[in-house]
Amino acid sequence: MTIRDFEVICEIEPPTRADLMHVRHQIGVLSKIASLFLIPDNHLGRATVSSVAVAHEVEAMGGRCIACLNARDRNLLGFRRDLLTAAAYGVDQFLLVYGDPPVAGARSGELTVQAMLEELRTFASRPEIARQPFRAGVTTRLAPLPPWKQQADFLFVQVGFDVDELLRWRDGVVFDGPVYAGVMVLASSAMANKLSGQLTDVQVPRALVARIDADPSTGVDFACDQVLAIRETGAFDGVHLIPVSRYREVAAELESQFA
Predict the structure, then answer these.
(1) For the domain bounded by 3-257, which CATH number is listed?
(2) What is the average per-residue pLDDT within 236-254?
(3) How far is the C-alpha of 153 from the C-alpha of 173, rounded, in Å?
(4) Which of 117, 99, 119, 93 is nearest to 38 (CA)?
(5) Which of 9, 28, 23 is CA-nearest to residue 53?
(6) Could you give the maximum distance between any two Cα atoms of the chain, in Å?
């Protein structure tokens, strides 16, 4: 089996300036291992170039994309604008998320992920809008799925560090579409501690933090081992891989594993 039989959806670092050079470089490096690319939307509460525009650029380079759209920064009209723009650009896959806490200001307060999913279905049913069907995914924690999430086309499972725990969750969930497990590269112990502080239900093992302290390359090795372990279970359709700034090392390691 090659890596193409198991989808690796690589999340790229989105541009915070009016320059797509770094995006193009990430795509060029990661294209050897990536089945698709996830384009974040105002990642970490910072303004970035539109995820729909970046997805269009990446697809022009030959990559397949999922554009992330968050509920935090949009009202209904803004969401419809983004869907119309996506239809014009030929972008047809989306990950609908709640959104990270904003750096400044407040949430718009109008949209929820459920409302976005319902509106996307209604909007995309209009033949004058969508030239091809839209596909939309949602995220989930390691918890039972509410009925409305069952209506999504695919699931992104939260980042975790315990494959056994992930498997226990998967055994108890019935979902018709693809399910992708979240894997994140921890670039430093500071990043690991910050992640544990931000996500109350995600704890980075202390032994892993200590190993990263001693050798920062441990984060890359651990993430790549997770990808391989999840693939071997056969329980998931792929992974949502977040390589952060270590995308060169991750691409090299996984390419060698799946050569």
Answers:
(1) 3.20.20.220
(2) 96
(3) 15
(4) 93
(5) 23
(6) 57
| pLDDT for residue 109 | 63
What torsion, rounded to 10 degrees, do the Cα atoms 254, 29, 12, 258 define? -20
Structure tokens belonging to residue 29 = 């490096």
To 5 degrees, how large is the angle CA 184–CA 172–CA 181? 15
Q: What is the C-alpha separation between 246 and 252, in angstroms, rounded?
A: 10
Q: Report the pLDDT value the prediction gives residue 1, as an integer from 0 to 100.
A: 39
pLDDT of residue 180: 98
Domain edges within the chain: 3-257
pLDDT bin (cut points 50, 70, 90) of residue 105 is low
**Segment among 36-45, 47-56, 151-160, 223-232 with least mean pLDDT:** 36-45
What pLDDT was estimated at residue 104? Answer: 59
- Non-local (6+) Cβ contacts of 14 within 8 A are 23, 39, 40, 41, 43, 48, 49, 51, 54
Distance of CA 173 to the CA centre of its chain: 20
Q: What is the pLDDT of residue 36?
A: 96
b/e for 180-212, b at 16 or more Cβ within 10 A?
bbbbbbbbebebbeebbeeeeebebeeebbebb
Say what the pTM is. 0.92
Q: What is the CA radius of gyration of the chain?
A: 18
CB atoms inside a 10 Å sphere around CB 76: 13
